[in-house]
Amino acid sequence: LVMAPFLKIYPVFLMTALCFAIYACAFNLLLGYTGLLSFGHAAFMGSAAYVTGWLVRSAGWSPEAGVLAGTLFAAVLGLLVGLVAIISGIQMFGILGVFIGPIPSSTIETFFGRLIC
Fold first, then answer.
1. What is residue 104's predicted lDDT score, i.e. its pLDDT?
2. pTM for the full model?
3. How many Å apart are CA 31 and CA 23, to the nearest integer?
4. Is the pLDDT of residue 68 over 90?
5. What distance in Å separates the CA atoms of residue 47 and residue 42, rounded to the nearest whole number?
6. How many CB atoms lie under 10 A from the CB of residue 48?
7. Alpha-carbon span 98 to 52, nearest angstrom
8. In angstroms, rounded to a whole number, what is the distance separating the alpha carbons of residues 76 and 82?
């Protein structure tokens, strides 16, 4: 990111590409090493991004604190979903992911009346 302006690369594009690279690494870890297919994988990334954006924009937090809080929120959400998935069994993991995916956006729309972003 420091060298991006000198190499004539847009920093926002580079940060977006790095976010998707982290997402791809996490998805590879989940599917490649454990063999578990999760359709709700993006729900954790999206919920962390939404919480971070909301805290920074509406609550007035610093971006660093917002990123840490968003990461913590996604980790707690992942822990809760993971516990439900472990109790349900391996066969239900993929099906559970289908139902977990739309829950954050529908919860936010219900709570706030609309998506803020």
1. 67
2. 0.62
3. 12
4. yes
5. 8
6. 22
7. 24
8. 10
Cα–Cα dist 18/62, whole Å: 21
Query: Six-digit token pair at 6?
Result: 């000198």
Q: Could you give phi then psi for residue 84, rounded to 5 degrees?
A: -65, -40
**Chain centroid offset of residue 83 CA:** 18
Distance CA 98, CA 39 (A): 5
Token duo for residue 96: 């559970």
Structure tokens at 4: 């991006």
Average pLDDT, integer, range 53-82: 89
- Nearest Cα residue to 96 out of 77, 107, 110, 82: 82
Closest CA to 43 of 17, 81, 15, 5: 81
At residue 49, what are phi and psi to the nearest 5 degrees? -65, -40
The C-alpha atoms of residue 116 and residue 39 are separated, in whole angstroms, by 24
C-alpha distances in angstroms, 64 versus 56, 80, 103, 111? 9, 25, 26, 25
Q: Look up residue 35 and give its two tokens.
A: 């063999």
Give the CA-trace dihedral at 95, 99, 100, 104, to 10 degrees. 170
What is the average pLDDT score of the chain?
Answer: 78
